[in-house]
From TrEMBL, chain A:
It comes from Spirosoma utsteinense. This is Mycothiol system anti-sigma-R factor. It comes from the Bacteria.
TrEMBL record, chain B:
The keyword Transcription regulation applies. Residues 1-10 have a biased composition (Basic and acidic residues). Belongs to the sigma-70 factor family. ECF subfamily. InterPro entries: RNA_pol_sigma-70-like, RNA_pol_sigma-70_dom, RNA_pol_sigma70_r2, RNA_pol_sigma70_r4_t2, RNA_pol_sigma_r2, RNA_pol_sigma_r3/r4-like, WH-like_DNA-bd_sf. This is RNA polymerase sigma-70 factor (ECF subfamily). Pfam families: Sigma70_r2 (PF04542), Sigma70_r4_2 (PF08281).
């Protein structure tokens, strides 16, 4: 297991592509290898995943107030 | 940079290049009947209103401003509905209008400490190598206990351009290609801006986590 990663910034960029669903097959395969052999890559992967999940799952989604929906609909009707 | 006002809300659409905001009458008349217009509006635009509101709220960080921004955007969308091609990506189309309205109308009067933010952006943009070529020393475990409000606070403290890419990608799930169209920037810029935004966010989260006393490597 590698304790030091010589391409940390590039690895991080690749990890982000993968978590965003924008990576190529090649990049996926490369990550697979790094996740078995490179300690810093493993740590970065878990951190990126955690941060993304904080944003997707833990942040409150604001819903549009019903009043605003009603206002928009009525203003549209008076248009034409 | 995105400080430049972008007024061409219909640029991503196969139009003859006319600007939706400047000359609506020149828009390629898709010749929708009134009935069709209302149907498109209700079936294709309205289903996205919660996402739009959430986006507006995350951009303005203010409920009243979010209300105004969403209303303006939907009225604009209806007025220029003939430049929308039925069945295409309505969500991205609407987000683009909202983001342009925000830049043109709201950013100026926004309550956030804009001056500081812009300087931040400036500094970050101008020192690309220094700012991008690093990783943030932070452990997954130290952020895993943060709650939604704390994440929101960290996100809100980012300059708006950085906040925007994170919202679009991580909260709304747009692809890089969709984001490029919404923001009028190349995909490569989407990628690098996201990378920078996430580094900044992690720095904020790290500060937050340590100020809240969550266990870090260093113990006091
Ligand atoms: Zn590595």
């Amino acid at each position: 297991m590698k304790e030091n990663c010589s391409h940390q910034v590039d690895c991080l960029k690749m990890i982000q592509l993968i978590l965003d669903g924008e990576a190529t097959e090649q990049q996926l395969a490369k990550l697979q290898i790094n996740l078995e052999s490179c300690q810093p890559c493993i740590r970065m992967y878990h951190l990126e995943k955690e941060v993304k999940e904080l944003l997707t799952k833990r942040m409150e989604k604001r819903c549009c107030p019903d009043e605003l929906v009603a206002t928009i609909k009525s203003r549209i009707l008076s248009f034409s | 940079m995105s400080d430049t006002p972008t007024r061409d809300d219909d640029q991503t659409l196969p139009t003859d290049g006319s600007s939706v905001e400047q000359s609506p009458s020149d828009a390629p008349a898709r010749g929708y009947t009134d009935e069709q217009k209302y149907r498109i509006f209700n079936k294709e635009f309205m289903p996205h209103i919660d996402s739009m509101y959430n986006f507006a709220f995350r951009l303005t960080t203010d409920e009243d401003d979010a209300n105004d921004l969403v209303q303006d955007t939907y009225l604009k969308a209806f007025r220029f509905i003939s430049s929308f091609e039925q069945g295409t990506n309505a969500k991205a189309w609407l987000f683009r209008i909202l983001k342009n309205s925000f830049i043109n109308d709201y950013r100026k009067k926004s309550k956030e400490p804009a001056k500081v933010d812009y300087q931040d952006v400036e500094t970050t943009y101008n020192s690309e190598d220094a700012e991008t070529e690093h990783t943030v020393d932070l452990r997954a475990e130290s952020v895993s206990d943060l709650i939604g409000d704390e994440v929101a606070t960290a996100l809100n403290s980012l300059p708006v351009d950085f906040r925007t890419v994170i919202i679009l990608c991580d909260i709304e799930g747009f692809t890089y290609e969709e984001m490029a169209k919404i923001l009028d920037i190349p995909i490569g810029t989407v990628r690098s801006r996201l990378h920078r935004a996430r580094n900044l966010l992690k720095e904020k989260l790290r500060d937050y986590a340590s100020s809240m006393g969550y266990k870090e490597e260093t113990d006091e």
